Amino acid sequence: MEPRAFSAFSFWLALILAGLLGIHITGSFVRSQKNHTLIFTKENAIRNCSCSVDIRDCDYCLANLMCNCKTVLPSTIEKTTYKSHLTIWFTDTSVLEMLLNFTKVWDLKLSFCGTTPLPTEYLAIWGLRKLRVNKVKGRFPEQSVIIHSSNNNENEDLLAVHNKDRQMLAYISFLDTSLFNGYSLLKSYSVDNVSSITEHFPSLLYSDVFSTSDNKSYVVTFIY
Ligand SMILES: *[C@@H]1O[C@H](CO)[C@@H](O)[C@H](O)[C@H]1NC(C)=O
Ligand SMILES: *[C@@H]1O[C@H](CO)[C@@H](O)[C@H](O)[C@H]1NC(C)=O
Ligand SMILES: *[C@@H]1O[C@H](CO)[C@@H](O)[C@H](O)[C@H]1NC(C)=O
Ligand SMILES: *[C@@H]1O[C@H](CO)[C@@H](O)[C@H](O)[C@H]1NC(C)=O
Ligand SMILES: *[C@@H]1O[C@H](CO)[C@@H](O)[C@H](O)[C@H]1NC(C)=O
């Protein structure tokens, strides 16, 4: 090889390598900015993880390896607000209820990793905008539903949304846990401008939770 040809070759090689390296550094930089929360339950243990990469559903070993996980004691679980993407892998409704019932989550993914069919129960979730669902260990394609899109940035209070009349708008979704049994299309149905959830939906039997005189306009969504 001619010396000049060689130096041109190594120049391009260096450029290509630098390009690859640059892309790699940018890639991991972007990903490290976007850690998301993954909570999974396995044999009565609950693990709360911060992951920088997407982990295949129900791959507990990989999650323990790749994410930064902590064990959570059921007695310490509080109703929290999740301001970034939350993924939950679950096997039964009791733990899902502990983790999710009456929490505020706007971007949620639920993956069912169990084998025993789930009963029909309703989980109440505040402020839900987007839900992704993976049924029966990924044997069916993932499905998603957008409940509402909001221009609010994620730092704003999920409940402090106002409509044109400056009335407080509160989004609440009721998720039927039996939707994870077998394959059916994920559906949602919303009712706008509900002033009293207890009066509109007496069969929900959550009267202890919703006050009737809080001067809010609810958008009530059923996911089934
Ligand atoms: C899981 O961890 C996040 C922070 O990474 C925290 O905000 C959330 O409350 C935790 N959830 C549970 C159920 O421990
Ligand atoms: C992001 O997740 C990685 C593990 O996947 C962890 O090492 C890192 O501490 C996390 N960063 C934050 C800010 O939680
Ligand atoms: C969610 O909480 C409400 C009110 O405490 C309760 O009536 C309901 O049974 C809970 N849902 C589930 C699925 O446990
Ligand atoms: C919402 O409901 C209230 C009564 O509950 C009614 O006065 C108002 O006109 C309704 N608003 C819209 C936009 O439908
Ligand atoms: C409900 O809120 C609106 C706007 O904040 C206010 O104008 C109205 O007086 C309130 N009504 C009641 C019954 O508190």
TrEMBL record:
Keywords: Signal. Residues 1-22 form the signal peptide. Pfam families: ECPIP (PF15137). It comes from Columba livia (Rock dove). This is Uncharacterized protein. The lineage of its organism: Eukaryota, Metazoa, Chordata, Craniata, Vertebrata.
